[in-house]
């Protein structure tokens, strides 16, 4: 049995462990070093790498960005990775379920990105998608936290509506950057790390 097969049988995933180590570094406050290490892991994983690895890495890489547009690009990459695993891959059932459970959080992050960029209608579209995906959340601390964050985002968007006026007639439609089946289309490759 190869090392990779042993890891699959035991449930260990060395790449997820490495991503987790960088997440710990990020949460400790070293965003720049975390960004550098995430970039190196991203290059190692590659565009055709495991969707769970790409989704998780991009999801956390977004939080290391200083520019809201860069953060949006990484969050879109996380969603694209989550959407890239076909439902019929029975051998990857556990990964499919894990990615589906991330969907509310992924859409919530995109809503927050669009709020930062002043794109209320796009934010509202992702809030609706996040709410629609909450059926995949479990009734645990994580699920409760995501649901509470969705409520806060809804309140924030309501305050934006009061300040800006009612939403345009595109409410409920996919944001323009994501038209197509299941709200997906080719998304930009996440931006390279910008040099200071």
From TrEMBL:
Q: Which domain of life is it from?
A: Bacteria
Location of region: Disordered: 160-196
This one is known as Tetratricopeptide repeat protein
The organism of origin for this protein: Streptomyces tsukubensis
């Amino acid at each position: 049995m190869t090392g990779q097969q042993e890891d699959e049988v035991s449930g260990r995933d060395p790449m997820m462990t490495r991503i987790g180590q960088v997440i710990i570094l990020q949460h400790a406050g070293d965003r720049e070093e975390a960004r550098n290490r995430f970039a190196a892991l991203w290059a190692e994983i590659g565009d055709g790498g495991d969707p769970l690895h790409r989704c998780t890495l991009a999801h956390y890489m977004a939080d290391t960005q200083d520019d809201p547009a860069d953060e949006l690009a990484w969050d879109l990459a996380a969603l694209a990775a989550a959407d890239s695993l076909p439902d019929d891959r029975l051998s990857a059932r556990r990964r499919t379920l894990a990615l589906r459970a991330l969907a509310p959080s992924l859409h919530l992050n995109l809503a927050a990105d669009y709020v930062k960029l002043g794109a209320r209608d796009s934010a509202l579209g992702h809030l609706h998608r996040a709410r629609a995906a909450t059926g995949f959340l479990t009734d645990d601390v994580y699920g409760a936290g995501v649901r509470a964050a969705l409520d806060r985002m809804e309140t924030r968007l309501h305050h934006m509506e009061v300040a800006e006026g009612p939403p345009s007639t595109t409410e409920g439609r996919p944001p323009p950057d994501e038209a197509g089946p299941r709200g997906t289309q080719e998304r930009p490759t996440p931006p390279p790390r910008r040099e200071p």
